[in-house]
Amino acid sequence: AFTTWDRSSPCFVLDRVLRIPCAFITHLGACIDDKTPLLRSNDALNKQGLRLLKNIKIGTDAKAIHSFLGWEQEFFVVKADLYRKRPDLVNCGRTLIGKLPTRNQQAELNYFAPPPTEVNTLMFNVQQIMLKLGVAMAVLHNEVACAQHEMSPVYC
Q1: Distance between CA 76 and CA 145 in Å, rounded?
Q2: Which of 40, 74, 88, 154 has the most CB atoms within 10 Å of its CB?
Q3: How far is the first Cα of the chain from the last one, in angstroms, to the nearest whole number?
Q4: pLDDT digits (tens, 9 = 90+) for 104-114
Q5: What is the structure's pLDDT at 61?
Q6: Which segments in the chain show pLDDT lower than 50?
């Protein structure tokens, strides 16, 4: 089997060790990891995407199409004692009751504010664990609703 450097994923330093994302294949080119099929899919998307752009005469000068696998992970952070007071959260794992936000506080006040210290610590700890797994985070911030936050991992 061979190890090949995945140049599409950034190298990073963790615990004073340089980590280089790799893919693993057999000497015949068969995949023996979960990343190689994703890399091959990216190559196919690039090839066919460029072909499509050329055929529809948009962006005919494009040299590459970059795609990223990663989804926004949006979540709410609710203190345990407040969580236990909400039967909808306890029994269903989701909000079934609630009310609209106070007038004129629907978006920007929370979105542009820094995350609370506890949430920032939580997101930093999750980011460290994800880095150990070789997954970088592109975004760590508040979202529009109160207590709503987002992390965006980039898998390849």
Answers
A1: 9
A2: 154
A3: 21
A4: 555 556 777 88
A5: 92
A6: none
d(CA 146, CA 95): 13
Q: Are 5 and 20 in contact (CB under 8 A)?
A: yes
The answer to whether 4 and 23 have CB atoms below 8 angstroms apart is yes
Angle at 138 between CA 120 and CA 68, to 5 degrees: 150
Distances (CA, A) of 54 to 42, 44, 59, 127, 131: 18, 15, 7, 39, 38
Whether residue 121 contacts residue 128, with contact meaning beta carbons closer than 8 Å, is answered with: no
Q: pTM (2 decimals)?
A: 0.54
Write out the DSSP string of 59-84. STT-----------EEEE---HHHHH
